[in-house]
């Protein structure tokens, strides 16, 4: 799973975090930003384009760790503001029930999700965003796709670690053809 | 189930609708209006106070039929605007998945829900409302309750047909003690 | 939407039902039968093959109307027994919350779902089936597909009215790539 | 949150685990065992009675950590077998979507859930159990309650850390009055 810019590493040194990552599952939240019309229908899906450490590019949803003593909804808001800027106006869901749980294993094939660095368990949410999005930090750009574009092989292929599966699960959940 | 003002009776005469109501389930939507903070946490629950035909008063959530050739999300928006006014700014959910389905039977005791007039099946949603609510038509008033107030026996007892159960199911779904 | 054999037309004559179908939404349940392993993971998805009135064949999930004074869970059990036989041992979900709601409109394009005969609103459920399935009545056969097969274009294309979308939404909901 | 007998502490020493618990959220699963009838309706809710370290007794649902490289559904099965014995025949849900997420904070009042030892985030599931339950290890007994009994103040009060809230959220989710 591509982390979106994690500016708050928590209370661990990099070394400690690395050590823990190899020994217990790490709790994440993931958010699929959407534009909605007045009936709540998702008309566009937002994907971040970012540079991977190897210099390649890929698309991703908003992702990040839940920190110690942080509520899931606070983690969602923090990561959305971090990746979409301070005036994106995300509407965090009222219910803690995620639409799915994506389990990223360091071993490929256990689930559709894979993260070579760690075992991450991500509670995933659809988040309507009504404001102006200004991606910052390591995110180069945010592109809005129609449901048809988001479900296309071209877009899915630009997502790594199974995030393309997550995007299609999100499409399915809001009533579109995945 | 108390209907909220149903100004669009569809394409049936009253007699026809009465006839159908005794012979097939009628599809409803119900919406529990909530005020949320910036993290999506529901801070207040909105209940309509209305006069029952017998002159008594009761509290209820927003309810109404889904009409022929109307999408569920359009029915939700229509009933919310009808009961809360044109500037309530309801945020219709992105996903068609309701948080529960309330089955109102003409016979009490089959489920926790009861409607002497009909067999109604209501898909129920939590709907954040950010604008100004101006109840109109037969709704006398809209009162906002804190989660603690909404869960209190006093409020629950003022709801009929099992709507008190629905309200507590809504509280549970958004993470409050029901 | 292809009805699975509806042997209980309710209390309406064919003519009356036809009349109502053109004037109000009709409530349906749909069930996607799955085989699961001991961890609950869906390993196979069951599709009925049936003859359409025009002599062609198509694949479908289990579908049928909710009758007057019938609970949703009773309708689910009735239709599953009707289509899969008396010893299929379906495990009806404990919660009334469907995984999605499929809205079939007589006009194509309003939603991904289409039924030329009527406006049907179907609450859809995943139903693990552990017993022996003996399709009967007009269902010619029940075939079990792996998740990969179920998601393949070949299978999806043999489903009409948008049921291929519903199947992929079901795949997504249980954690598979849709 | 009362852990049910955690016989597999993972790959951490007690000291290491204690250290991590004070610095990052720990991922848990919780399961509310239910008896269901053939229509999937929950007729009884199972609660474990166990001795707390201080010698008092309390009731709880099935709870436990998700271990490194363990799927959520495998963790659910492991903890259910650990607490209910090898022939309980739990039916692990097909979908990874929990019915709620309970966030246990070391500080009381942040959420309805509290665990003085740690920040635990529990994905909670309803699990039908059809076999014979033989509680073992530190669980003294498993008692089945009707929905009315489970919702009674007497039972709720015997649950600590907010598990009474979780039980009522489970009641609400399966369609009972919470």
TrEMBL record, chains A, B, C, D:
Under InterPro entries, the record lists: DUF4916, NUDIX_hydrolase-like_dom_sf
Q: What Gene3D superfamilies does this protein map onto?
A: Nucleoside Triphosphate Pyrophosphohydrolase
Pfam families assigned to the protein according to its UniProt record, in alphabetical order: DUF4916
Question: Which SUPFAM superfamilies does its entry note?
Answer: Nudix
Q: What protein is this chain from?
A: ADP-ribose pyrophosphatase YjhB (NUDIX family)
Supply the source organism for this entry: Nocardiopsis aegyptia
């Amino acid at each position: 799973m591509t982390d979106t810019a994690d500016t708050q590493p928590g209370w661990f040194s990099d070394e400690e975090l690395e050590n823990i990552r190899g020994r217990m599952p790490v709790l994440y939240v993931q958010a699929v930003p959407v534009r909605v019309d007045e009936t709540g229908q998702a008309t566009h899906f937002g994907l971040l384009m970012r540079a991977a450490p190897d210099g390649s590019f890929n698309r991703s949803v908003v992702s990040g760790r839940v920190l110690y003593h942080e509520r899931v909804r606070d983690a969602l808001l923090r990561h959305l503001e971090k990746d979409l800027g301070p005036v994106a106006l995300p509407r965090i869901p009222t219910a803690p029930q995620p639409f799915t749980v994506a389990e990223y294993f360091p071993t490929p094939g256990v689930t559709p999700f894979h993260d070579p660095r760690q075992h991450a368990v991500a509670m995933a949410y659809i988040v309507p965003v009504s404001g102006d999005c200004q991606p910052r930090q390591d995110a180069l750009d945010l592109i809005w796709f129609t449901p048809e574009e988001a479900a296309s092989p071209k877009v899915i292929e630009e997502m790594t670690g199974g995030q393309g599966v997550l995007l299609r699960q999100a499409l399915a959940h809001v009533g579109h053809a995945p």
